[in-house]
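Proteins fold reproducibly. Consider a sample protein:
=====
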Amino acid sequence: MVLSSSTYLAKYIRPAPTVKHVCYLYAPFRLLWKPDSYTADSLPTPGGTSGLVKGIVPLLRKWDLKRTQAIPGLATSCRNMADEIQKVYGRQATILYPPVEVPEEVPHVDRGDYYLSVSRLISHKRVDLAVQACVQTGRKLVVVGDGPERQKLEQMAGNAVTFVGRVSDEQLKQLYRGAKGLIFPSYEDYGIVPLEAQSWGVPVIAFGRGGALETVQEGVTGVFFADQDVDALIGALDKFESATFDPHQIRQWVKKFDVESFTAGLKEFVTSS
């Protein structure tokens, strides 16, 4: 048995005929099936080769379809991606939620007065929405992470926004312990950060699309905003601050995404395929 973990190339391995191959497939080959999801700065191919790739996309799609449909067993990260795999490849995929470690520590009930953003600072993560919403309303925001958007974000930020760059695991834990909420404005296939926050009892204000719809419970562990714009986020923050969230209930919800559940599910997937 071979288990591949793949976004695109690893699934193309060819084990011996006597060896079964199953694949944990995070998404259909995005460059072939959703090229518009890449910004110019995040394309995985150099600028000079992107035109060549675009020209042979029909052939590559046919090849990708054939090779992926030949894999005996597929698993993926969430219902959102299982639906994409069904649409592109006509295959059902077992859902195995990527795990988050749930700390033994009881979450703090008394929290600080700041919101938290944890992300790479690149355009499609939309950290700019969190920064603008907090600047316009005078809310405190701590931004964790680094990337090419940092200088631009710092220029638009007011005194209420603090950029701490990359931090250690212990520093991030301390920030989670004190945060009143995590702002998650990105559209992600799955997204592990909302689960990390919730494992510390931190509720989430999330863009209501993608994997967040599966990892955040509306009104119980967080709130959603429907449009990826500043006004919608400000409305969600107002709604968030008028609600009450129980950090112990949030932590209990996250246990379904813990390491033990993932390990058991993965073993079952491999042995039953």
Remarks:
- The chain has a mean pLDDT of 91.
